[in-house]
Amino acid sequence: MTRKPRPPVHHPDPVLVEATRGPLVESLHRGAVAVCDAAGEILAGWGDIERAVFPRSAVKPLQALPLIETGAAERFALSDQEIALACASHAGNALQVELVEKWLLRIGLTETDLECGPQIPSDADTARALLCADKAPSALHNNCSGKHCGMLTTARHLNEPTKGYVGADHPVQLRITAVLGEMTGTVPQHTPFGTDGCGIPTYALPLSGLATAMARLADPSRQGPTRRKAAARILAAMSAHPELIAGKGRLSTEVMRAVPSVMIKGGAEGVYTAILPGKGLGVAVKIDDGANRAAEVALLAVLRHLQAFTTEEEAALADHLQPILRNAAGQAIGVLRPAPDWLG
Amino acid sequence: MTRKPRPPVHHPDPVLVEATRGPLVESLHRGAVAVCDAAGEILAGWGDIERAVFPRSAVKPLQALPLIETGAAERFALSDQEIALACASHAGNALQVELVEKWLLRIGLTETDLECGPQIPSDADTARALLCADKAPSALHNNCSGKHCGMLTTARHLNEPTKGYVGADHPVQLRITAVLGEMTGTVPQHTPFGTDGCGIPTYALPLSGLATAMARLADPSRQGPTRRKAAARILAAMSAHPELIAGKGRLSTEVMRAVPSVMIKGGAEGVYTAILPGKGLGVAVKIDDGANRAAEVALLAVLRHLQAFTTEEEAALADHLQPILRNAAGQAIGVLRPAPDWLG
């Protein structure tokens, strides 16, 4: 089945998440959610799940497939930590930066070969240390530096030029685009692309396709042997190193620590995906207005709805399922919650 | 005319602002906008302008009226700088903090009498200095400390207890609530309130009432002499000190610097108001999802639509009318813009 994404329309998606203040809803977030299996069947959907959405960093686990499938990971003996970083939007903390730097050295490159641009790390301690030492952040601190190192590793393995690897016409990106097409059941080459936060193309894909791709990572049984193996490696690496996928206190890390049977990955502008190996399902969320606070609450609400958590896991995630909003004086002034008439 | 706000409904307001990435709209922001005159007539409206909205800091110029009307400002010989700070969501920079501190001393109080809670200042240099000296921010750095100092000044003038001045039952808040009712043409006492970021009550008001109140500041000719004088003082102070209303690079400050004939004031969760003295109009914006990035673009689009800017002023505000979005490497990847089918 080939899915054709439609251009975005101003169709009102349902309200998925509300921010309350005292007795009223102060703000609300509309969006769309798709739940699919590996055959591409839509098991549940809310809102317009066929319009084209930029998946941003939520497809990093898919973008890492060529790193393994080309043999590059084997050739350079990549560790699970390195595979996890290739799938990560990391916090730029000391360990994460050191791992990427050493990996770059091992493939004969340095920080200057990264084309993702510098970024202030989200890890507060690292950001503070840089700021107070009057040091600028480097490309290593960019949350995508592991993904970029993975791209460079593939280019080195195949003797491709490393300069310009972020370009849509570079073999690195063409391979990734082909994989995205196979996994999502779309032809991304025929769809528009924008430039991602880190300079690579981000192809607009329907949420249904994105959820299907995640289901195909969760259940690669219908894929060829190379992909099956690559999918298993990626899931194993993410599962073993949730602390590298994002960082302390960040949703991906905290959920994957609390719930070993679920892998989740966020993207900018309100995108989130989940991989449910036990159920063979994939989930994709897009908040129309791009709010990450809402994408997090919507994703967890859907996972709860799909019974992806045990009672204990749900208790451990209570602060994330319905985050309490506090003011400057620390008073609880409201909550972020799934809209009451969404999942019932 | 008494307006009755309705509770929020999940009615789809129109799309006001779009965030593009390459050839597509990546995210969109729905919202409502009211343009009213001092008689409470709605001259233009988009979306549901009668539902209850928390105005947050966008009503600070109204909350400052009792400071002048009670005679407190005269008694303590408040400067225009201090009146401006009472209307401000300031950046917590050195000058702003010093002015509030000295003002507090003049009314016989100190920082410990402020009940707004501490807040990391939005001024980057000040925040950095605190962080790198391992100092916690104080209540003086809270963007609302000027408003709170104004409230304390009124309490001191009227020999009211200062402790607990943030409570909904305290005379300070009761006076403000009465003024909000008169200016908006509503009965806020009958409407729900939440706790604001700084601990005081924030009453849910319809956007039409909020725009009317701003129009009554712009054109107080039908108000009594005390209010007329107070409104003129507030507008003069805001107009004279745009640098105190917010801070360098912040929209309120930049617009009021570029356009002396317009006063604007933002509030958290996507609220903005404008006072147009030359036209006798008030404007109120609420972005449904609470995104401030969209409230800024929507407000400026409406002001442009109302021909509030000269050609030169419009040119000076180009970067704010349609902000360019850039990635980590500095590439322009899209824009924030008014939705093409909103204002035509």
Description:
Two copies of one chain form a homodimer. Chain A contains 16 helices and twelve strands. With 344 residues, chain A is of the alpha+beta class. Chain A has a single domain, classed as Beta-lactamase (3-Layer(aba) Sandwich). The longest helix of chain A has 16 residues, at 225-240. At the A-B interface, strand 1, strand 2, helix 6 and strand 5 of A face strand 1, strand 2, helix 6 and strand 5 of B.
Summarize the structure.
Chains A, B: InterPro entries: Asparaginase_II. With 344 residues, the first copy, chain A, is α+β, with helices and mostly antiparallel strands. Chain A has helices at residues 60-63, 65-69, 72-75, 80-86, 94-106, 124-132, 145-157, 171-184, 207-218, 225-240, 242-245, 251-258, 292-305, 311-316, 318-321, 340-343; strands at 15-21, 24-37, 42-46, 52-53, 193-195, 201-203, 205-206, 263-267, 271-276, 281-287, 324-326, 332-338.
